[in-house]
From TrEMBL:
Gene transcribed to yield this protein: LOC125552238
Protein name: WD repeat-containing protein C2A9.03
Tagged with keyword Transmembrane helix: no
PROSITE patterns noted in UniProt: WD_REPEATS_1 (PS00678), WD_REPEATS_2 (PS50082), WD_REPEATS_REGION (PS50294)
Organism from which the protein derives: Triticum urartu
InterPro entries xref list: WD40/YVTN_repeat-like_dom_sf, WD40_repeat_CS, WD40_repeat_dom_sf, WD40_rpt
Keywords: Repeat, WD repeat
Segments annotated as WD repeats: 304-345
Bilayer-crossing regions: none
Pfam family, any one: WD40
Length: 438
């Protein structure tokens, strides 16, 4: 559940009327002030943070620790002690700690590059965090209020590519949709797919005007669209898949946007992902078990058992043999789909559930995002025993590697009224031939 800390930080500098500071809920109300005028003043004082400024000692998120009653380290310890992780199932968790392998977190695979407040992600549902997608090391798409914004890190400029505050009409006969609160989204090969808080599905080509397709999946305004997926079927055609709270996973083609398949399950589907070859479907939801099914027929192939709560995140390794699942029990489990009887590794979060998972396109890294404050980047080649821990403050809206071969960029979205921003990290390269000059 969204975290709320009351009155835990206060400004102490003279001349500033900043009384009650808090990291608040997942709706973006985060670390904030109680007065509107002071809030405006604070926002206008804060600028983007560059890598050079960070190396010179500036806070990555430009949090003015020197003017607060707590140091960064003190506040971190407070957060670790007081943050309450949301649980759907009241089950004993003592045995989980024994399963989890320890990871050394002294490595740095990615260096901080830029923090910009020109785009601020907005979270609609506290359990759903797929709200950020990178399409290159310079291009990233972020959900912000009733729109999707494109941010160019090269031009340092943002542009709205989808606005769903007003009516959107499906030209193929669907009804109009208006004021869509985006709950999840994905961008791939110029196609944007977005799900809505009341069961909507919207598809749009980011390089073309207008909306290509929009509909309400279940006709039930309480049935949230939890996840969307854009993938290639085994025959090479592009498909859009959507998972909904009505316990159904639906697949559409991208030529006529006709409904191809709909697979019912016994519980609400919170997340699904298709294997790189398009043949297998991972299905996760309001169950401690995760399923692997045939993507064409929906027939169950295997049941993955080990989690203690509901799951909300999954990712396939590019080789198609390893599946990662993230759960509210604060763990990520790694499964070899050739032997799915038990996970071959269990990774533990620092503060809360694992709500975002991404493998880098080259398969070298796995990024695991928690609801707030922490993203870990694991070294796959080291058996997930080495990791970089990105330590920040605020609700995490999403995490995404750039899809180029080298996974040159890693983006992290932070949803917070005051410190909401987009953070960019660049992959560290070791050039031995330069050592003689150091």
């Amino acid at each position: 559940m969204a975290h709320d800390l009351q009155d835990d930080l206060e400004f102490v500098a003279a001349g500033h009327d900043y009384d009650d500071f808090e990291f608040d809920d997942a709706g973006g109300n985060g670390l904030r002030t109680s007065g509107g005028a002071s809030q405006y003043q604070l926002n206008t004082e804060m600028n983007d943070t560059s890598a050079l400024e960070y190396r010179q000692g500036k806070d990555m998120q430009e949090i003015p620790w020197e003017r607060l009653n707590y140091s960064r380290d003190q506040y971190r310890q407070m957060r670790l002690k007081q943050y309450k992780n949301y649980q759907s199932l009241a089950r004993p968790r003592d045995a989980l700690a024994k399963e989890c392998q320890r990871a050394e977190t002294r490595d740095a695979f990615y260096d901080f590059h830029l923090n910009t407040r020109h785009v601020k992600p907005t979270i609609v549902h506290f359990q759903l965090r797929n709200l950020l997608w990178a399409t290159s090391k310079h291009d990233v798409y972020v959900t912000q209020n009733y729109s999707v914004m494109h941010w160019s890190s090269l031009l340092r400029r943002g542009k709205e590519v989808l606005n769903v505050a007003g009516p959107n009409q499906d030209m193929r006969g669907g009804g109009p949709l208006s004021r869509v609160q985006i709950s999840t989204m994905m961008v791939k090969d110029n196609l944007l797919a977005a799900g809505g808080f009341h069961g909507e599905l919207i598809c749009k080509y980011v390089d073309q005007p207008g909306v290509a397709f929009c509909t309400n999946l279940a006709g039930n305004k309480k049935s949230i669209t939890n996840a969307v997926e854009i993938y290639k079927s085994p025959n090479g055609s592009t498909r859009v898949m959507a998972a909904n709270n009505d316990c159904v996973v639906r697949t559409f083609d991208t030529e006529k946007y006709s409904l191809l398949t709909q697979f019912p399950f016994a519980w609400s589907v919170n997340n699904m992902s298709v294997s790189p070859d398009g043949k297998l479907l991972a299905v996760l939801g309001d169950s401690s078990d995760c399923l692997i099914a045939d993507s064409g027929s929906g027939k169950e192939i295997a049941s993955l058992r080990g989690h203690a709560d509901y799951s909300f995140a999954s990712a396939w390794h590019p080789d198609g043999r390893v599946l990662a699942t993230g759960n509210q029990d604060r763990t990520c489990r790694l499964w070899d789909v050739r032997n799915p009887s038990e996970a071959f590794a269990v990774l533990e979060g620092r503060i809360g559930a694992v709500r975002g998972l991404r493998f880098s396109p080259d398969g070298r890294f796995l990024a695991a995002a928690e609801p707030a404050d922490f993203v870990r980047v694991y070294d796959v080649a080291a058996g997930y025993a080495r990791a970089q821990e990105i330590d920040l403050f605020g609700e995490i809206a999403g995490v995404s590697f750039s899809p180029d071969d080298g996974a040159e960029a890693l983006f992290v979205g932070v949803a917070d009224r005051t410190y909401g921003s987009l953070l960019e990290f660049r992959r560290r390269h070791r050039h031995a031939y330069l050592d003689c000059y150091l």
